[in-house]
Every structure is written in structure tokens, then in C-alpha cells.
Amino acid sequence: MKTTYRIAIAELRSLFCSPVAWLILVIFAVQVGVAFGNAFDRQVQGQALGYTLWDVTASIFTGWMGIFPGFLRNLYLYIPLLTMGLMSREYSSGSIKLLFSSPVTDSQIIFGKYLSVLIYNLVLILPLLVVGVFCGITITNADLGLLFTGILGIYLLICAYGAIGLFMSSITSYQVVAAMGTLAVLAALNYVGEVGQDYAFVRDVTYWLSISGRADEFINGLICSEDLLYFLLIIALFLTLSVLKLRAGRRKESRGKTWGTYGAVVLSALLVGYISTLPTLKLYHDSTATKRNTLTKTSQDIMKQIDGGLKITSYMNLLDDNYAIALPSQLKSDYERFEKYIRFKPDTKMEYVYYYDEANSQLDFRLEGCNTLEEKAQKMANILNLNINMFLTPEQIREKIDLRNEGNHFIRVVERDNGQKSILRLFNDNEKHPSETEISTALKRFVVQSPKVAFLTGHETRDIYKTGDRDYNQFAENQYFRYSLRNQGFDVVTLSLEDQEVPEDIDIVVIADMKTPFNEVENDRLNKYIARGGNLFILGDARRQEIMNPITEQMGVTFMSGTLVEMKENDSPSLIAGHITQRSCAAF
């Protein structure tokens, strides 16, 4: 170890005698200062203008205007300039012969050189540490876990860059070639994640190899064992390759044995990396103060109650507007949408079923000239370079599941081993995909009985199946509105009191602005429901007091005559922003 330290100290002396090393430190420190000054200034200006500051630490350091993401885009430029001379300088000057003749091993040479890089990288990120300490002092309740986890991610990234640069420097005596080679390898590792995404095994390997976005989870305050092991494996891989290259210069070995050793090392790293991606072996630590990267306590409790297997089957219609979501090349991105849940139930399976059928989509206008569904599907498959045989025909998909009630749009069916099923849909809004609220709501149906809401019919009440302005389809039944009762965990039905009693499984009865009074039978059935403690939700227009008051008076509530208005310069007087007072809450 002492020999390794001596080599590291000697290399540090050499580094700090170079103007390039000092230039990199100065440029990085200036960039940190400027970026932090701008980000902090935005917060100060907002506070001076009277805006409420929210999640200040994350606003300064993460997000599209944060400091950390900006640095990730430029870090690859610094390290090749630093590492290009680590070994190539020894080759070009001839001092490598002195190293070979001295009592040091190949591993000591490489590890000593790399140790100097680790120490230099600590000095490089020192401005970020200073900024972090400053924010911890000046920001009330600063999220230090988020901040220092982000710095850790950046440090691991530049250390991985350093290992790659050291290897490239060990295979050439030209420093410029070493720098260009390092840039080429970094570019390849950033691009490789897009290679072979249409093929299952290749997809897993190339996606793991990609260095692009590896530090993002750290920046967001989440330490995942997969990402941590990735950096350690990349560092170990390129350091091992560097040792083998140095050893090959000392010993005469056949080319086949040399390349075989290289191949074994690379395959071993890929195997360990692949194993680290298995959900059952992943570990997580959310270092943020608010646990923003973790499911809420409610969602975690739901996941704990779901025993047995869980399967999420996505049905993708080639002729639907949302066909691109589940293309084979997008499956890794799609997996990330459910990773928070798979974290708490690693045995969750994700499957995909591809088919084509009529979907009333924008594609109908883009596939003019195709007269049949088969022709449209064939044209789309050709455009996307996909095999049409991977898509089920309308007849074949209906044997598995009939999606015509869903308009043949993209849906996911969540299914337990015991046969329970729930549906996740896409919504007609900017976010499109279901959030934790909608996903947990769908899963909650497996562990508790969903509340059932009955809208009374007759008497010209507002209708949940009509889409007019005065009716309630959007609020109650619309499949593609995120906040409809159906998508928020309620079962919605209609009920006629003239035809039947209120069933025992009804949790809430809604009377929506009826225009004619109930008859004696209906009143009696409603009163029985109220007497047994049923929940009642009553809505009435200002002109309906005479009709609604007979129902509400027995509960000590009456509709008053007149209309409430709130005078505003730009809004209709009838638009009132109501707030529930503490007194009204206490009444319940």
C-alpha cells in the first residue's frame, strides 16, 4: 500500500505542476460560482417579489434549471484533459522502463495513478461542497440529504470517467490520442443505451451499459444499488483492463490468450451488472427529507396487503394514437413508471400484448389509401420497422380480452394471482400517464371494497351518462378524465327509487338538482336509507328550494331563497370560490 501511496503522491505532484490541472479547477470553480449565484438570485428575487418559496434546495440544485443537471452536461469535457497523460506520458518519455524495472507491480502502478485521480476529483468538487455547506446555513430546513447525495453522484461519475481515461491513456503514448479516445468511449457509453432496444436480452445488456442518466437518481436524492454498483463495476472493469494492458507490455503472451482474458473480464462485469438489475436484488435509500422518491405511506400499506403475485399487462393497439408508449424500444422507459411499486413488490411482472383494431384515432387521417384494418396495420408496421406477425388480429385479441368498451385504446390490466383485476388508463391531459394517486387507487380495489356511489334518476336530475354542460359524465363516468369518480376509486351506478329500495352496498346517494318532487314511495325509501345512517349528497339549483327543502328539513338544513354572488372584475358573479371553515368541519 505504501508503494501505491508514493505513486499517487508523485502523480499528484506531476498533475499540479501542469497548468491544465489548475485550469480545470479554476474553470469548474467559476462555473459553480456563476451557476449557484444565478440559481440563488432567482430565489432571492422571488422572495422579494412576495412569492412563496417552495422546496428551495431542490429548486437550486435539481430540475431543468438546477445546478447539478447543468454540470452533468459538461463533465465529460474535463476528465479527458486530466487523464490523457497519466500513462501515455510514461510511454512517450520512456520512464515506463524505470517503472518496469523498479520493485512495483502492475496493480500498484495503476492503482497509484488512479488514487491520484480520486484525490484530484475531491479537490475538483470542493466548490460544490462549499456551496452545500453555505446552503445548509442560509436555507431554512435545507434538504442536505438531497444535496450531498447529488454531489456523491457527480463524484462517482467523474471517478468512472477517470477510470476510462486511465485505460485509454495506458494503450497509447500520444496524449491527444488518449484524450480523443476517452471522449469516444464516453460517447459510445452514452449512446449504447439506444442500441438493440427491440430485442429483449440485448436490451437488458445495452441499457445497463449506458452511462447516460446514471447520476440522475443521485441528483434526485435516491441511492439505488444498481446505479451504485454500475459505477463501481465500470471503475473496476477499466482499472482491470489497464492492469492487463500493462502486464501485456511486460510479458510475452499469445494474442488469443490476451484477448481471451480481456473478454472474460468484460463478460464477468456484464454478468454481475445484469444480476444487479434484478428487482429482487435491488436496494434503495431515499435521502430526501420529504421522501419524494418513495411511495407515500398509504401506497406502501396497500402494497404490503397485496399478497401473492401481481402482473401488469399492457395492451397496445398499433392503430391507437398512444401506440409508441409500449413499443419494444420503449419498454425500459415504461418500466421506470412503475419502479416505485416494483421496489416494494419485486415479484411484479410486466407483460405486453400487441394487437391492431379500430380505435378512432388521428392515425385514420394519416393512413389514407388503406381500405382495411389489415392494410392500415401493415403500413404502420412497415413505418415502425416491426414484424406484423407480432400483432394479434381483432379476432385474436377479442378471444383474450374484449377492449371495445375501452375504445380499443391503450390500457393496462393489473391482475393478482387470485383473479382480481383492475384497469389503468391513459388520460386526456398533459400528464397523460396515471400518477401514484391513480395507480394506488387501482391497487386499493384489491384490498378494500370500493365505495359505491348511486346517482338517483328520474325527476329530470342531472345525468351521469350525458356529456352536456349541465350533466355529470365528466365528473362521474368519463374513462379518460383523471379526476372522474371512476378513476379515483369509486364504483358509480344509477338508481331509481321508484323501482327499488336503496341496496345495502350503496355507500353514497347523490340527488343532483331534481326538478320535480319525490312521490310517497320514493320519499319512504329515501328516508329508510337515511335512517340506517347512509351518506347523502344533495345538489340543488337556486330555483329548486320548494322541491329540495322537504328532503333537507328533516336534517335541520334548508335551502334559502336568493342567489349568492361574489363580485369580481373579471369573473362571473355566480363564480364563487368557497372554503370549508373550521366551524363547519367541527360540525361533522
Automatic annotation (TrEMBL):
<keyword id="KW-0472">Membrane</keyword>
<feature type="transmembrane region" description="Helical">
    <location>
        <begin position="20"/>
        <end position="40"/>
    </location>
</feature>
<feature type="domain" description="ABC-type uncharacterised transport system">
    <location>
        <begin position="451"/>
        <end position="547"/>
    </location>
</feature>
<feature type="transmembrane region" description="Helical">
    <location>
        <begin position="117"/>
        <end position="139"/>
    </location>
</feature>
<feature type="transmembrane region" description="Helical">
    <location>
        <begin position="60"/>
        <end position="79"/>
    </location>
</feature>
<keyword id="KW-0812">Transmembrane</keyword>
<dbReference type="InterPro" id="IPR019196">
    <property type="entry name" value="ABC_transp_unknown"/>
</dbReference>
<keyword id="KW-1133">Transmembrane helix</keyword>
<feature type="transmembrane region" description="Helical">
    <location>
        <begin position="228"/>
        <end position="247"/>
    </location>
</feature>
<dbReference type="Pfam" id="PF09822">
    <property type="entry name" value="ABC_transp_aux"/>
</dbReference>
<protein>
    <submittedName>
        <fullName>Gldg family protein</fullName>
    </submittedName>
</protein>
<feature type="transmembrane region" description="Helical">
    <location>
        <begin position="259"/>
        <end position="277"/>
    </location>
</feature>
<dbReference type="Pfam" id="PF12679">
    <property type="entry name" value="ABC2_membrane_2"/>
</dbReference>
<dbReference type="InterPro" id="IPR029062">
    <property type="entry name" value="Class_I_gatase-like"/>
</dbReference>
<feature type="transmembrane region" description="Helical">
    <location>
        <begin position="174"/>
        <end position="193"/>
    </location>
</feature>
<feature type="transmembrane region" description="Helical">
    <location>
        <begin position="145"/>
        <end position="167"/>
    </location>
</feature>
